[in-house]
Amino acid sequence: MNSKTPLSGSIKFRHSLRAKLLFIVLAITLVPLILLQTYSIVQTNAASKEEIRARFAQIAEDETNYIIAWENERMLNVKTLTTFEEIKQFDKEKATETLFEYRDLWGQAESFALVNKNGVTDINTDNKSIDVKDRQYFIEGMKGVSMVSDATVSRGTGNVIVVNSAPVEVNGRVVGVLIGNLPISTIKDLLSQLKLGETGEAYLIKQDGTMITPPKYEQDLIDRGLVEETAVLNYQMDNYASQQIAAGLSGTAEYTNYVGEKVLGAYVWIPELRWGLVIEQSLDEVMAPVRRLTIFSIVITALFSAIVAVIIFFITRSIARSIQKMSQVAGKLAEGNLKQQVEVKGRDEIAVLAKSFQQIIEYQSEMAETARQISVGDLTGDVKPLSDEDELGNAFATMITRLNETVGNVAYNAETL
User: Fold this and answer.
1) 3-state SS class at 343
2) Largest CB tally within 10 Å, which of 75, 100, 144, 253?
3) Global confidence as pTM
4) Tell me: the pLDDT tens digits for 350-398?
5) Dihedrals φ, ψ of 309, to 5°?
6) How far is Cα 198 from Cα 385, in angstroms, rounded to an integer?
């Protein structure tokens, strides 16, 4: 019979039971975990974006209401002045004193002026006589209509202003128009109270996209040669927000702002003022908390996966080692070496298998001892087969019986000779 070398020690790891167990268990445990965590991260990011958009929309709504309320109060100031008798009577001395008094009291307007029916501001806090008869607010005022003008350059100060105008009426007849000039700088200060991180800003534009208040990154526009000194009334935006405002729409979106940066913005068309409010913040800054949460989730998932992988590695190694040891024992048995001992630990299937191996070794050792006794002529051994299917035990029992019969016959024949 040819001797064959057992293969138990030549199995490569990738072909081993250990590798298969490791792969299967990792696939069963980690793949669902990673898929679930990935889905959770995607859903969390989407929910966070929606929450941020909703917050931006709410901020824009609150700021819009605040601006409208603030402007209504400025208009109320102008209308209040039109009720004074010195204003109605165009009493220059008293009217001028009243205008100065309330300008200082309210502290918002750059100047107040009383425009006569010829369109000249004879009574004002600028101490200048200015012809404004071509201004729309004067034309509408003489028709008995109060209005907030578009942003324009003051003929008195040269500053960019918004004018609140209200008709002055005596006995139901319009005799003039009272105007209050609000400098854009005041509106800018109003918008600057809104805090949106390091990159956030709020500004106003006309419906055609022309800037009414100076933007935060105005210097970038100057450096690029897009405007000379100021963007106010000199720079016309053409991006998603300005296009939506031009269509009279409001909303929130991610888009590129006036300097080419990706932002999350809220835009609101304010029809009663004919202003477009734009609130923007760098998308990188807005999404920074979401990215940090995503990175944290990935790190936690990776750490947990590594721990699970290590635990699974040691568990599968323990299982594989037990089987490997029994494989080595089986290899020795295949070589005829019965001097083996299988260590039995635990009560699981591996332990049961090890116990069965040990029983095989003990049984084969008994058969080997019986064979040695027969080899030296000792036929007194009593072999009891373990079952009807015990071919080796039955064969040895039959062989001993027949050898004993043969020896008995030889001895009998020898006596009879």
Assistant:
1) coil
2) 75
3) 0.71
4) 777 778 877 888 777 887 877 888 777 777 777 778 787 878 778 877 8
5) -65, -40
6) 90
How far apart CA 9 and CA 6 sit, in angstroms, is: 8
Distance CA 226, CA 203 (A): 18
* Residues β-bridged to residue 160: 153
Q: SS3 for 360-392, per residue?
A: HHHHHHHHHHHHHHHHCCCCCCCCCCCCCCCHH
Number of residues in the chain: 417
SS (H, E, C) 214-257: CCCCHHHHHHCCCCCCCCCCCCECCCHHHHHHHCCCCEEEEEEC
Work out the number of other CB atoms within 10 angstroms of the CB of residue 163. Answer: 26
Tokens of 370: 């019986």
| Phi, psi (degrees; rounded to nearest 5) at 81 | -65, -30
Which amino acid appears at position 206 of this protein?
K
Distance CA 227, CA 66 (A): 30
Q: What is the pLDDT of residues 19-67, one digit of tens each?
A: 777 777 777 777 887 788 788 888 888 888 888 889 989 999 999 999 9
List the helix and strand counts (H, then E) for the chain: 10, 10
Identify the residue whose tokens are 């210097």: 219
Number of other residues whose CB lies within 10 A of the CB of residue 309? 15
The widest CA-to-CA distance across the chain, in whole angstroms, is 174
Question: Other CB atoms closer than 10 Å to residue 310's CB: what's the count?
Answer: 10
Q: What is the DSSP letter of 113?
A: E
Q: Which residue has the tokens 């009291």?
A: 105
